[in-house]
TrEMBL record:
Entry-linked InterPro entries: DUF1206
Pfam families linked: DUF1206
Regions crossing the membrane: 24-44, 69-91, 112-131, 151-173, 210-227, 247-268
Annotated organism of origin: Blastococcus jejuensis
Protein name: DUF1206 domain-containing protein
Domain named DUF1206: residues: 22-88, 113-177, 204-272
Keyword Acyltransferase recorded: no
Transmembrane helix in keyword set: yes
Keywords of this entry: Membrane, Transmembrane, Transmembrane helix
């Protein structure tokens, strides 16, 4: 059996699919918590937590069943990362093809690899908070940015990362507007009302998340231009920057609603996941 066959078998595993459902629910809950923290930031000055993934994990950790819940979240996210890693290997056979087939294989592999890294990073974050060693995502990003500044062409690399994030944000906005996200879900067994629900959630959720990601990218570019790692404040910093704009409370609330819609989209997608 080849590596590709093994990856395809793993991707079609019922056990992995069920664990991936848990991961999608966990991913959705994290976004819902970030949205709640953003609303608190907009109208109540924040509840003492960063309005980002670390703030969401900290909120979970402080609940009565926080530590066990974080381990469940971590397990589900690891399953999601493994699911996407299997996708990368599954498309590997198309890398040596030509024309559109090769382009499609590389694009699919690239998308799956990025998702695997994101899910894996969130899983590590959940484990750190479960073990009591979690720290603010903003502080972590500032430390990472400062380290990259010490590399050859580090300032340019940070700026390039910011441009990539802005591009990813724009892609999310476009994905929401053209409803391309519906290709992620097998809705053949869904009712018409369920299809309408997931469509509306995606139309609102993907642009909302895209705007937030673009804000993080803009801060990275500003950090690169000023050669100041403290400017790279992550999602919490991006949301606070939105709050400082004219009509900032309203704008931040709208972004929070978009992030919440994306979280709800993930919950619905867990009901109708696309099997790889």
């Amino acid at each position: 059996m080849t590596v590709t066959d093994t990856a395809r078998q793993a991707g079609n595993s019922d056990t992995l699919e069920h664990l991936a459902r848990v991961g999608l629910i966990a991913y959705g809950v994290v976004h819902l918590l970030v949205a709640w923290l953003a609303v608190q930031l907009a109208w109540f000055g924040g509840g003492g937590e960063s309005a980002d993934q670390s703030g969401a994990m900290s909120t979970l950790a402080e609940s009565p069943i926080g530590k066990p819940l974080l381990w469940v979240v971590a397990l589900g996210l690891i399953a999601l990362a493994a699911w996407q890693a299997a996708e990368v290997i599954r498309w590997k056979s198309g890398w040596s093809a030509s024309g559109k087939q090769r382009t499609k294989a590389l694009r699919k592999s690239g998308n799956a690899l990025v998702k695997a890294v994101i899910y894996g990073a969130l899983a590590v974050l959940a484990i750190r908070f479960a073990t009591g060693s979690g720290q603010s995502s903003s502080s972590s990003q500032q430390e990472t940015t400062a380290g990259v500044f010490g590399w050859p062409f580090g300032q340019w690399l940070v700026g390039a990362a910011g441009l990539v994030l802005i591009g990813v944000g724009a892609w999310h906005v476009r994905k929401g507007l053209n409803q391309h996200f519906m290709k992620q879900i097998d809705t053949s067994k869904a009712s018409s009302s369920a299809v309408r629900l997931v469509t509306r959630l995606g139309q609102v959720g993907f642009p909302g998340k895209g705007i937030a990601l673009a804000g993080v990218g803009a801060l990275l570019i500003w950090a690169a231009v000023t050669f100041d790692p403290s400017k790279a404040r992550g999602l919490d910093g991006a949301l606070r920057t939105i709050l400082d704009l004219p009509f900032g409370q309203i704008l931040l609330t709208l972004v929070a609603l978009g992030i919440a819609a994306f979280g709800a989209f993930c919950l619905v997608r867990a009901r109708y996941p696309e099997r790889t």
